[in-house]
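Input sequence (163 aa), recorded before submission:
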Amino acid sequence: MDRLSHPFPPLYDAESRILILGSFPSVKSREAMFFYGHPQNRFWRVISSVLGCECPRTIEEKQRMLHTHHIALWDTIASCEISGSSDSSIREAVPTDLTPILQTAPIRQIFCNGTASYQLYCRHQQKRTGREAVRLPSTSPANAAWSAERLTQAWMVLREALS
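Predicted structure, token format:
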């Protein structure tokens, strides 16, 4: 089990209206130095379907799509002990500080991508932020019970938060 620190910064700007929190970057995301880097993670396909956009391929396209639609991305964990990419192996989690995002951007709603992110947010960050988060089903390939179509339907709540 390795003790790791989050290797890249949050994605947000002064126009961000919703914040999506993951748990901690996967091995592939850590290698890519960007969110949801595993090719089997359905995040980019789901979010682009929800937004009615073409699925972005490059990091620059992903950043542009999120900024255009006023979506911020970050994770709940700043550092932890983890084996590979498994959320279930996370131990000794130190939460991220959401203050810079919440002080800069007019965030209307916080969404958590999966149960691990949601539980960590509730345990470590909700008291500090004074905001409840909405748990969405994980886009991780480990969440095989959910098809891409079913995930997209569940994630449609983002549209309401953005309108």
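Checked by second reader. The chain has one domain: 2-162.
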